[in-house]
Known about the structure:
The chain has helices at residues 29-36, 42-50, 61-66, 70-85, 121-135, 154-169, 181-184, 214-223, 246-260, 292-301, and strands spanning 5-7, 10-12, 22-27, 54-59, 88-93, 96-98, 103-104, 110-111, 114-115, 141-144, 148-149, 176-179, 200-206, 226-231, 263-266. With 309 residues, it is an alpha/beta fold. It has a single domain (5-301), classed as TIM Barrel (Alpha-Beta Barrel), CATH 3.20.20.
Amino acid sequence: MEKLIVNKNKIVNEKGKEVILKGACLIDPALTLNRDNHFSLKDLKNIKDFGFNTVKIVIVPSMFQSRKDYCKEFLDKIVSECKKIKLYCWIDWHAHGNPLVGETRSPEILDDGFMRYDSKKEVALDAWKTLSKRYGKEEHVIFEIFANPLCSNWNEWKEVAEELIKEIRKYSDNIISVSGVNFMADLSDVLKNPLKEKNIIYSVAIYPNYEVDKKIVAKVKKEYPVNIVECGFIGETHHKVFEGSKKEYAIPLNKFLRKNNIGFMAWVYHPFGLTSKASVLINSWNPNDLSEWGKFVKEELLNKTKSKK
């Protein structure tokens, strides 16, 4: 596959043509094997057939820490298969919390004694040393350094991000995604104090009940590449963040993405989600059993002929 780089506010291939990354999120393969008795490389082909050009592999820190041969057992196969079927492979270190103090969101959720969303900076640095060294020369791989930095402000998070980027850059010049603060929602200070490294893109999540200022996202996109790293809706759930509708959430999201030429990672290619009933693309492991969100993604978000109006 062609290597991607950042050119001004666009992601482009080696020929200079803009590439809009449109992906499906795939929950940690070790977790789905342990919890759901499911791990199949066919999911990648199904995602490709769905119409996506990217798959985002959600690595939860607990699984990575508790498995001695995590990369050999899971990621090597995934990275190789993505290359074979021509999918960009977006590797997401799915930590939630403040890496400066190691304060982790939902610390009570444990897997084999490890916090699922472990936010400690040292853990992330060790992980990126392994991951970037192992996959940093693979031209189809993209790195998301820390999914959900719950820092008090952008400048605080930026210092940590720079450390993680520095570790990756020892082994790779591939594109790196850096999330906004406050539940991946806030990029308001990026333009005042941007990262200086090359091949950096900025990311936010947009859900029905996230407080995301789309005007700020659009302003950042005028200067730098932006990707929506999580998005989706579900009709009813106890997790109110995801609760929305096609009319009030999905259609406006589609208009916003098209108007600003922004890519997205759809949450999630799984029948029920990571920890609770969330926005899902499929109702079962049957790839044709699409949810309302899945149908919208396939028919609208991935349909190149739809109007931007």
